[in-house]
Amino acid sequence: MGVTTLDDAIRRVRFEGWCALDAVIPPDQVASVRDEVVRIGEAQRPEKWDGRDHIDALINKTQVFAPYVTDHRLLGVAEALFGPHVRISMTHGHTQAPGYTRNNWHGDWPFSLAQDSIIKAPYTQRQPVHVTTLWALTDFNAETGGTVIVPGSHTAGNSPGGDLDYDQYQPIASERQPEMRPGDVLVIDSRMWHTNGTNHSDELRVSMAVRYAPWWLNVLSIVPGLAEYEETVRRRDGLRAHDVMGMSQEVFDALPAQAQRLFQHMLVGQRVPSAEEVLDDA
Ligand SMILES: O=C(O)CCC(=O)C(=O)O
Fold first, then answer.
1. What ligand 1 atom has the least distance to the C-alpha of 146?
2. pTM, whole model, 2 decimals?
3. For atom 1 of ligand 1, which residue has the closest CA?
4. CA triple 118-124-130, angle to 5 deg
5. Quick check: CB of 108 below 6 Å from ligand 1?
6. Ligand 1 within 6 A of CB of 130
């Protein structure tokens, strides 16, 4: 894959809905990130394993990847689309064992059909409102089951499980499976239809997802403990999603200063000054 410049990346995500960025994690630093994702995945693995580790709220469990989330091209794309007050809405780690098969086409939150607090189809806005970045920590290609996308589908107006007469489980003629090296990152408009490929190799496929949102998109509804999230749990008979966790001061302090502003909306347990203190300060 050739070098993708920031200008290229912005143009491509805006018009084509995706691009791939080379070496967001420098090749000599990928192993430490990959090993962390594998370690955490193995530690939470149930006895009866389906061949995939899905790690929610990855940033709360390891901060090893935090220096790279402010890569100038990643942040540059997010800021070009959303303005300067960008946030990271979710972080996930994924591993897929040899033989793990392809899942369903989907768009991501807030366009996912499987979650609450979503934007309702038809998606009429031209403006992207959420960006998903998928990080290859091992080789991504047709053999290893790299992410498969349907270029242009970010303008389709609905997710494939919606009313568009597409089968979520059938291949689509125009699909693509971009080849990426460890440390490369696939950037997609979250409306874009995508899924993991089948891992035909004999190696574990390892990746992360880091999702970027503008300041005006309501991410409070996905943070457990906050009123809007708890209200949706009540509506769902207690079913809790774990994509995001409130962030402790300790984890927050462990982040590089540049990355802190992307996560500060998740910081919990802050001291609230009393009314007297506020008056004293005035
Ligand atoms: O693992 C993949 O290639 C796709 C991951 C994905 O669909 C997601 O994180 O939204």
1. 3
2. 0.94
3. 196
4. 50
5. yes
6. no
Angle at 180 between CA 8 and CA 194, to 5 degrees: 80
48 touches 41 (CB < 8 A): no
Domain ranges, ordered by start, for the chain? 6-281
Place of tokens 């790690």: 55
Task: For 39-97, write each residue's pLDDT tens digit.
Answer: 999 999 999 999 999 999 999 999 999 999 999 999 999 999 999 999 999 999 999 99
For 203-226, give the DSSP string.
S-EEEEEEEEEETTS--GGGSTTS
Give the Cβ contact number of residue 100 at 10 Å: 19
Residue type, 174: S
For residue 46, give the DSSP letter.
-
Measured distance CA(16)–CA(276) in Å, rounded: 54
Pairing of strands 205-214, 86-96: antiparallel
Domain 6-281 has CATH 2.60.120.620: yes
Calculate how far, in angstroms, residue 271's C-alpha sits from the geometric centre of ligand 1. Answer: 37
